[in-house]
Amino acid sequence: MLFDTHAHLNAEQFAEDLEEVIARAQENGVENMVIVGFDRPTITRAMELVEKYDFMYASVGWHPVDAIDMNDEDLAWIEDLSSHPKVVAIGEMGLDYYWDKSPKEIQKEVFRKQIQLAKKVNLPIVIHNREATADIVEILKEEGASEVGGIMHCFSGSVEVAQECLNMNFYISLGGPVTFKNARKPKEVAEAVPLEKLLIETDCPYLAPHPYRGKRNEPGYVKLVAEQIAELKGISYEEVARITTANAKKLFAIK
User: Fold this and answer.
1) How far is CA 174 from CA 14, 101, 197, 238, in A?
2) N or C: which end of the chain has fewer CB within 10 A?
3) Distance CA 125, CA 129 (A)
4) Buried b (16+ CB within 10 A) or exposed e, 194-215
5) Rounded to two decimals, what is the model's pTM?
6) Residues with Cβ < 8 Å from 167, sequence gap 6 or more?
7) C-alpha 66: how far from its chain's center?
8) How do residues 184-232 score in pLDDT, each as one tens digit?
9) Is residue 34 within 8 Å of 62, Cβ to Cβ?
10) 214, 254, 216: which is closest to 5 by C-alpha?
11) Is residue 83 classed as helix, strand or coil in its secondary structure?
12) Cα–Cα distance, 231 to 237 (Å, whole number)
């Protein structure tokens, strides 16, 4: 069975056919998924979904692109939600230097506040990183994020950066890009990182794996990620499915 550790079924792209998408996921062996909320509307929708479906869990946080919009009330709300039995992580949080909506210093401040909150409520964190690796690693170290650990979501960095993250008690999560023919780094990371420290995800509706690249992604496609990792590591698909699912349940404290 598979565990999609990062899905946005709370996105408007699934408004029309959510039940069909869920059915396809289950047909492909997806046993659990984490629905990630990253602002007021998406967190609200994530909580609605996890209340309705027993195999879904939530991660709640604030996206760095929208850091400029977050206030103390939002942070307090995330803290309140953190005690919900279906909330298993804080995030996605981090830094995004590709989009320039939120100034870097505000992104850093919001990132630090969320790490501090995660330590306070003792939940792992989900890291979003786009063109900001050095600053993210530095802040994780400075804030003692290894105390709670978490996930380097849709990891796109080098083997060396992956090792730094492993040393800070983080799992490396791979998604659709590991299946792309020209994606050298994710393939190298899949080969180098021990299976016991790998997670799989879709980040749906984004980053659909080959052969669906450019189309809407969905949780059922996480099977293609697991198959690619199995091929790269020279082990069975079943072993990848079993161990990455066990990793996710351990991290999220799911029985």
Assistant:
1) 22, 27, 11, 17
2) C
3) 13
4) ebebbbbbbbbbebbbbeeeee
5) 0.97
6) 146
7) 17
8) 999 999 999 999 999 999 999 999 999 999 999 999 999 999 999 999 9
9) no
10) 254
11) coil
12) 8
